[in-house]
Design a protein that fits this description.
The model has no long low-confidence stretch (mean pLDDT about 95). The protein is globular and about 45 Å long. It contains eight helices and five strands. The chain has a five-stranded parallel sheet, sandwiched between helices. It is of the alpha/beta class and about 180 residues long. Helix 3 links the parallel strand 1 and strand 2. It has a single domain, classed as Glucose-6-phosphate isomerase like protein, domain 1 (Rossmann fold, 3-Layer(aba) Sandwich). It is about 50% helix and about 10% strand.
Length: about 180
């Protein structure tokens, strides 16, 4: 584990990363998502690897419930359809695995959340660009630098870390906070 932080340091990095979450962004995204749903919109989210898991987790909290019993909220994770992803990746390009389904599903009333710890995942960037073209409200969950993603979204959620596991853990905290804010509306 050369180059890995100590366990104590890892905990401290995680605490610092979570403290970097902007509560105003949490409240703003929850309010925009609430309003979008009232107007027939939905959440569309996606990412690669651990970020795909975070995207799927976000949808699970909306399809099910978080802290309060309520009806299911409309949400789609584009990272979960392995048949679609592998067909598109094989027949077109891995850059298109989120772009193609998003181009069919996204409309101007939607909230689109692309998740990339580096902010430079080409397939995430291409889908976000399409969402922008369609007029959806775009959000990027990323790390400290923000990468290209932070430059093309309407809301850039930058976690103050360069360490992928810490960024991913703070992303799920941000997602849980958005769900909590939604439950309190």
């Amino acid at each position: 584990m050369a180059g890995s932080p100590s366990l104590e340091s890892y905990i401290e990095q995680g605490i610092r990363a979570r403290r970097s979450i902007d509560i105003n962004q949490v409240e703003e995204l929850a309010a925009k998502l609430h309003l979008a749903i009232q107007h027939g919109g939905k959440l569309i989210t996606f990412g690669n690897g651990g970020s795909a898991a975070d995207a799927q987790h976000f949808v699970g909290e909306l399809d099910g419930h978080f802290t309060k019993e309520r009806g299911a909220l409309p949400a789609i994770c584009l990272s979960t359809n392995t048949s679609s992803m592998t067909a598109i990746g094989n027949d077109y390009s891995y850059e298109d695995v989120f772009y193609r389904p998003l181009s069919a599903l996204c409309n101007k009333d939607d909230i689109v959340v692309g998740i990339s710890t580096s902010g430079n995942s080409r397939n995430v960037l291409k889908a976000v660009e399409e969402a922008n073209r369609k007029g959806a409200y775009t959000v990027g969950l990323t790390g400290r630098s923000g990468g290209k993603l932070a430059q093309i979204v309407r809301m850039a959620v930058r976690i103050d870390s360069d360490f992928t596991p810490v960024i991913q853990e703070a992303h799920i905290t941000f997602i849980h906070m958005v769900c909590l804010a939604l439950d309190n509306m």
